[in-house]
């Protein structure tokens, strides 16, 4: 029988195979890290396509990052070869939302060439609104309002849906009004912010059931990776699409909970088996906040479709950004008749790594709990290494990497996962010194550099002249004596006539409102823009970009600049144009930019990856370095302060995600001293280190050996030699703590070799440190 299976199905274990082949009705794969959830999802798409159940355009697959989407596309290509033409709708919630929105932009008061604003634009716009409303930006910062608005959008709330209590949280009760004004302003600018890509899409679906129906009919199969990290807006969007399309619009409140009559044009694609499995009267949901607002509108009425979500409650790490792990816990409720499949075999990590990660996460209370096993060897123990400070930490890791490299380890298979992005600089500096190639993933993005943003602003204006923020950014860059007063004049003019700045500028140069010099230079600029816009149709976009940068004087501005980084900026501009080559046209390129959440390495060079733990989700590497395991940094103080126990549990899940990225080597570090926001602090090792199982973890000494007396070689000391380990610290409190710890726990380990928690790496030490240093 196996011989008849298509190649992509062989090698799956029975549960995975079940998840791939159960195509009718809702399926939830709830399973731990490295059990093949993503692989199942990809194989499932291949199976749907190869078996002819749907055409590529009828499959919707959602990944958490753009990078993950690209990877999935590549895998699909490998599985299917040339057999299939076209690709499924495969991308992040936002990229797919944006794609749909662009087609129907007019229905939500946008034009199809709308611009997607980034955070900076957003802030600038909000500042203008605050100023117009005479709200003190010092007391009520625009950033705070931006945060509130993002939060509301993540929860799928339009301005009129914001609860009064929350609207009152900003500007003496003006939060809601400002949100409304902001949305209105975006429409005038023909712009959307990131949250709008989904929110406006939801509004589109709600206000235009015919459009919704079109997509419901189109998408025969919906697949979602990392389901544990969906927020309410994403959830609502999915729920809308995952209903079987119905002819009648079940908007009346009276219809809540009753199943909507499919009516005449009953959708043909509902499989019989699905109808049989789905109760005719889905249970009405309990009222639970916003999520149910949608339900109350009747959007829950139709039976669910072929939706397959995969996720792991232990890897829910975006609660701080509005993700609701509840979504995964409620799946069976939301999609009646759902089949839940669990996968237990981990294919990624060796035994010690899996044991360490499982043991750590077992300290969380709020979890479903699951079994994970591996058939792999035990492999190398997880290591914990103390360094004097973050510089030495970086040096030690640099040396370890060089050593691995000498042993033939590919740099591509090495990652450094940090808790906070500020930690990256130290590694970047170190790697530059060592000449060690590295790439920052998801970090300070290339496209966010000032010179890149300027160049992009020019291109944005050419693409969409109503893009006021872009226009304003470059109208006087390089300097062309168009000062603030002139810009203000353009604003006034634009507001009065409700036209964009670009149009206002074109009108004003025909009058004598401006000083001759200013008028002349604005006229030159406007004529250039008109010319570039015309050339856009004739020239390749890369060529156009080069012309724009040269003719605008922007390139020259940096060529004349004497500052140290000017040369680098010119190189970046070159790189920008190179990067445009990957796209068909300007529109496509700009769209990509606005959606790039994660930057790719840019080249195929063998390089170490540096990224935050948050952006490491779903990835895997042979060797993973995890620096900065210190109280306050990891778990992060802010998470503890703001969310207490829930915050701590989310941090622990993050630690779990970090360790489970490793296939063969997980190397944890802590620094005894760290400079945070400019001042030195003595640190306490993370409580998470205490929570690791002693017989899977090895304490090693920093290899950096930089003058703090790193006695003994790397890897020489085991945890039971902790006295020796401790003696290399120069802080008295630490020495005592270490010594005490060694005495107190020596026997504990042999009695209960499975856990460090008796030794209490941090908790026991913390009071001692206080004793030694403060009392
Ligand atoms: P995470 O929760 O971290 O996202 P995951 O559950 O999505 O993990 P995958 O990334 O799909 O797991 O798989 C982990 C690794 O195990 C991958 O390298 C994958 O190719 C491999 N793998 C999965 N299933 C099998 C299998 N049946 N046989 C061999 N290797 C497998
Ligand atoms: Mg995965």
From TrEMBL:
Residues 252-262 have a biased composition (Basic and acidic residues). It comes from the Bacteria. InterPro entries: DExx_box_DNA_helicase_dom_sf, DNA_helicase_UvrD-like_C, DNA_helicase_UvrD/REP, P-loop_NTPase, UvrD-like_ATP-bd. ATP binds at residues 31-38. Residues 351-618 form the UvrD-like helicase C-terminal domain. Pfam families: UvrD-helicase, UvrD_C. Its EC number is 5.6.2.4. GO terms for molecular function: 3'-5' DNA helicase activity; ATP binding; ATP hydrolysis activity; DNA binding. Residues 10-350 form the UvrD-like helicase ATP-binding domain. Residues 248-290, 736-757 are annotated as: Disordered. Belongs to the helicase family. UvrD subfamily. This is DNA 3'-5' helicase. It comes from Rhodopseudomonas faecalis. The lineage of its organism: Bacteria, Pseudomonadati, Pseudomonadota, Alphaproteobacteria, Hyphomicrobiales.
